[in-house]
Amino acid sequence: MLEDVYYEFIAFPCGVRLSSPLGIFGRSFKVYKGTSLWRALPRASRLLLLSPLDPLAFYDSVRHELELRVEWEECPRPHERLGAWYSCMPRLLERGELYDVYRCEEFAHIGGTPPPYSRVMGCLVELLVLLTKARVGAVKGYLEYARWLTWCVERASRGGRYAEVARLVLQELEALEGEGKEAGGPVL
Q1: How many angstroms separate the CA atoms of 149 and 160, rounded?
Q2: What gap in Å lies between CA 21 and CA 52, rounded to an integer?
Q3: What does residue 89 show for φ and ψ, rounded to 5 degrees?
Q4: Which of 25, 52, 137, 144 is the most exposed place for a label (fewest CB within 10 A)?
């Protein structure tokens, strides 16, 4: 892993049937309080991380449908048809007011091939990052950026299912902003 870039994965905490998008920067990651991953991580023996071939897997993870489509033992059974899989031993570094910071120890590739970069994946994942942060009140003033990201997905995919999902996420973001959720911190 490069130390100065974000990698976007779908985290599967072992011992808990859950999936959650997770950005990792230099092997460190933030888990926002109030999220399902924040509640599950203290019980997890390790994390399996998926770099999916299809960016819609991130959306399915946000909706908690992806964990229903994988086979489970203590951890999910890695299937190469979904993408590349990695193992991470999470270690708590610090507790914060809005989030806790962890570091991946013993980070290792355990199977599958990393997907090629796609603009659709980049824009859709960033839109989903906004959604997960907005759901827990960690961002505000994000609608202009969310609309641009939706346009980016529509343009890069030329319509279809990816654009449809981006519009659904934008609708939820608009509804959340309309509720006037209190938030703090920067958008990115």
Answers
A1: 16
A2: 11
A3: -100, 105
A4: 144
